[in-house]
Amino acid sequence: MTAGIHHVSAIAGPAARNVAFYTTVLGLRLVKKTVNFDDSGAYHLYYGDETGTPGSLITFFPWENVAPGRLGIGETQETAYRVPQGAIGYWTHRFIDKGVDHQPLERRFGETVLPFRDPDGTRLALVAVPGIEAEPAYADGGVPAEHALRGLHSVSLLLEEVGPTGAILTDVLGFAQTASEGFLTRYQSGATVGGIVDIRAVGDFLKPRQGGGSVHHVAFRAADDAAQAAMVRRLVDNHGIDTTEQQDRNYFRSVYFREPGHVLFEIATDIPGFTIDETPAELGGSLKLPARFEPFRQRIEAALPPLHPGRTGGGVRSAFEDVADADYGGSD
Ligand code: ZN
User: What is the DSSP pairing of strand 287-288 with strand 106-108?
Assistant: First the structure.
């Protein structure tokens, strides 16, 4: 069975700053540039590996003047990426060099973890995973292949209690509880990328305020429509939870539901994937719109902010430097 995280979707501030950070600093590929299907005035940007494999994807809804979010109970606390064990030193230096807000190395479940934040304060981490050096990596983003990110490692959810959400992960989404340490309970799906969900159960805590730096939802994988329908049936029959109707997101088909710990979950199909409207070489190259928005393309494009302000032929790197000078840092 296909299981694991499909993508994580978060809320960001200025789109150009978001692009610069995820492509130039983290070395991910912008695999799809489209609009928020529920708000065509805003981008929806997808970053992943070379072809946007499920489990490699983080996506953003950037709004230029978004108010910062505040983490609270019932939210995704952190999104972590896998890197080769030998790459942690490289990344620590890179974060210092680029002025990226990061914390000292931590140990979790025997793994070395480097927590950091993007310019919006989104909580991220790199986790050193032994033995993955030979896995394919996207290296055209300026980070050498030996150090490049190898897809999502995990998300951690900040919840009041473990049990009810754990039941959804194990009974519906294909995970099994495998370990616990301190406040953390670990669930694993067996998938190489995006295979881990950690629940951090802290009892009563602040309510969240969604905004810049907040994760909007976590999407889990279903191989196809039939697998998704089976998961929806289990949600209804075993847990009394209804989902939305299936929604066509062009690159996958989705249902959404609020899990018992209040985090918004999505179940997204692996099919058809990102090469449905661009070739692998073209991915992320032009603004793609769902068919119903095509008649309004001119108006939509005119209303969207530029993704590379200050770009004067120096490429994405100089765009990042410009943006960095203007408003990067002090994100806490
Ligand atoms: Zn989604």
Answer: unpaired
Q: Which residues surround ligand 1, an ion (CB under 5 A)?
A: 9, 219, 266
Listed as ranges, residues in the chain with pLDDT below 50 are 310-332
Does residue 157 contact residue 215 with C-beta atoms inside 8 Å?
A: no
The total number of structural domains in the chain stands at 1
The tokens describing 1, both together, are 């069975």
Per-residue model confidence (pLDDT) at position 308 = 77
Among candidate residues 8, 23, 38, the one with its CA nearest the CA of residue 307:
23
Provide the CB-side half-sphere exposure for 280 (13 A, CA): 6
The domain that holds 227 is classified in CATH as 3.10.180.10
Query: Do the Cβ atoms of 102 and 59 come closer than 8 Å?
Result: no
Full domain range(s) for residue 29: 5-328
Tokens of 211: 């905004």
pLDDT value of residue 38? 86
59 CA → ligand 1 middle, Å: 8
Give the predicted TM-score (pTM) of the model. 0.92
Residue 280: per-residue pLDDT: 95
Q: Distance (Å, rounded) from C-alpha 12 to C-alpha 327?
A: 14
What per-residue confidence (pLDDT) applies to 326?
40
Distance 285 CA to ligand 1 centre (A): 21
Q: Which residue's structure tokens are 């301190």? A: 182
pLDDT for 330 equals: 35
Ligand 1 centroid to residue 141 C-alpha, Å: 24
The closest of 4, 13, 11 to 58, measured between CA atoms, is 11
